[in-house]
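User: Need the bound-state model for zinc ion:
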Amino acid sequence: MAKPRGGAMRRALAVLLVFVMLSSVVSPTMAANTAEMKPIMATERTELHKNINIIKVDPVLENATPYWIIIAAGIIEKGRAATFKYIDSSTNLTKEEKIELKKFVKELWRKYRVRSIKDGNVTLITLNSKAGLNLTQEEKAMLEKVAQAVNEYFSTKYGGDVGILWNVDTHQSIIYISCIKWGIYRDYCNITMDHADDPDYWPHLPSDHYYNPDTGVGSAPYYCWYYAYGARSYYRNGDMYNAFQGLGWASHFLTDVGNPLHTGREADQALHKWVHTAYEDYVSNNWESGYNFKSVIEDNRYYYAINDPWDATENLASYSHYYFDTLYLTIYNNPDTWQSSTLVRSITEDSLLETAKYVLGLVKYVTG
Ligand SMILES: [Zn+2]
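Assistant: Bound-state model below.
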């Protein structure tokens, strides 16, 4: 699409024309929606998380091995039982291999003992010894087998499609609701919704849909900024199709990092990709029924003013990342019951609420 050229007069005319077009199409829709729409208000970021009990795993342990979750699980009976369950349920391991693996894991938990330190509502899981973690090649190979058993368990029990994101419908739903809340013409909201899932069909690296605030790895902030900035220019030039398409794409990358599992360690995610998928299916399955997570987005009336979509994406990632270890460990430690966990539900609701405020801000950034 060629950029409009010409003098200030021509630009002013273009803007005026857009304004006339907008007022003729937007007004009736706004009027129709007034009754159901409550005002949206700006609010300051507080970075206050929900007052729930959180688990943090010491970065020394997390950085030492992508299999840290198996070692951390050794701290409680539930985690140990879950690990044995994954091994026992595997159809790829022989009886002898299972016995050998369980013996290995038991020894591993003894060798690399972890302890917990409680500070307020945060429990830190850390290695008992200051010596750190130096896994032998053999230990790594054995841990890989355990990880495969975990993946096998979740893929068999929860199935679903392996994605690298929130599920497609979640992305679309969040941006559509946010767009409608600002009273934007429904046809434009439909354009942005239709394109909100596109990036998941692009030949992207998984890390393009991630951002890990601890390591700075992941390109989601860049992509959100790139498409939002472009969308805003299109909007100002009156190119509504490209503006709302771009808003849909930008919102995708912002929404992705609202999912705590999109802010974690990429290696672990590949390793336990089925845990990740099972969680996203859980959100999807409870979107309009069950826990009705969609209502968190619908009921929210606040937005964060966004000046820089890049920073905004990083800030949202930091917020949801706070929950990463807790979410991951809770799912791991409760192979059959995590879906009814109040902790998992609270984390999901709080992350979605924060996401809703940012996405509203993004819509305003582009169209404001
Ligand atoms: Zn994505």
